[in-house]
Amino acid sequence: MHLSELADGEQRCAIVVAGTLKAIMAMHKLYTADNPFEAHLLCGYLVAHGVSAQVQGDVLFSMRGELPMGMDTLPSVWLLHAGEQERGELLLEEWRNNNSASTDSDDNWQCAQCGEESEGGFAACWQCGSMRA
Ligand SMILES: [Zn+2]
Fold first, then answer.
1. CA of 124 to the centre of ligand 1 (A)
2. Is the confidence at residue 104, as pLDDT, over 70?
3. What pLDDT was estimated at residue 7?
4. Does 125 map to a domain?
C-alpha cells in the first residue's frame, strides 16, 4: 500500500466521523416523559406538525427494576434537526397546555367573587360572570 493512499483513507474516515458527530450534536433532547405512552403521544404530536422527532429510552423503561432508577431509564423525546428546536419547544408548550386544559375542564371550580360553583367547561362564573381565576 502506498503512503498517500493511506493518508487519503484516514482523511475520508475523519470526515465520516465528523459527519456522524454533527448528526448527534444536531439532535436536541426536548422532553423527558414519565412513561413511554406520554413520550409517544408528544412525538406523534410533533411529527403531525412537521417536526422530526424520535422517542428514545422507551425500551430501557421496560427494563426498569433491573436497572438503577434515574432519569436515564425514562423515555425522552428528541428533535432530529437543530433548526427545528424553537418550533419543537413551542409545540411542546402547546401540547402541555392542551393536556392540562383537558384534565382541568372536568373539575368544577368555585368562583372567587361570589362563591358559586361552576362546571369546568365554563371559563366564567354562570352566576356573576367573573372569569375563572
Ligand atoms: Zn361568581
1. 8
2. no
3. 47
4. no
